[in-house]
Amino acid sequence: MSTSTKKLRIINAYIISSISITLVLVLIGVLLLLVFNVKHLMRSARQSIQLTILINPEENESKILLFQKELDAQPFTNFTEYISQQQALEEMKAYLGSDIVDLLDYNPLPPVINLYLKPKYTSYDSLQSISNRILEYDIVDDVFYNKNLIYQINDNISLVSSILGLIAFLLFIIAMALINNTIRLLIYSKRQEIKTMQLVGASDWFIIRPFMLNSALQGFIAGLLASLVLVLSILFIQAHTTAPFKVYNLELTMAIVVLSGIFITDLATFLAVKRYLWAKDDIIWS
Prior knowledge:
The protein is of the alpha+beta class. The protein folds into two domains: 3-44 and 154-284, no CATH class; 50-144, Alpha-Beta Plaits, CATH 3.30.70. It is built from ten helices and four strands; from the N terminus they run H-E-H-E-H-H-E-H-E-H-H-H-H-H. The longest helix is centred in the first third of the chain and has 45 residues, at 3-47.
């Protein structure tokens, strides 16, 4: 085989391996975006969970506002919303289209504080503990929340997290296998060069280092190309859909994709070169 033909085959192998690595990294990037955006949706769902605190109607408003400020200072509080008796009456009037005061001759609606919790305090046990703690205040008549909704949200979050974790693990294994096979095919074309360097006394690290540097560059370029594909795909979708389409943690995803490209290709290269350093002569010169 002529030298030019051999170089051409190496170049073709390098291009094909780069394309393969890029496509695998695109899949990793898509999964990461899915994980990050589902995580954001989960966080939004948790932040929508609230405790409704019914206040004793006989308490004066200044005391209620002090209580609200005390709630705001608690570690579990995201934010609070105070609804006075008059405000509750106006909202009821707008909803029903009539004034219940005309029927009852008094305002039966109590003052209410809606307490929105930080996501990590939205498990059922945490909600129960916080509710019991709030009920200890004399100013509070009752605390309630939608238990069925809490169970549903937490169960769905656990299920989705487990599924995404399993998919992520399987995809990482598949990515490692595909990239490893691609790199091994590329290193195979240089197996005789590796063995020759070993025979003239070069140390293992001296032989491996240039291959790893080259693979790191290849992984870096493949990561950049994969990130570009992701960005262009997102821009295309945003340009051709009328529905709101927002992507979270895109920059972080791109960074992880590039670093994954460098890490996986370097690891695969290290293992492949080591394999041919230990290989028998009949495998090398066949």
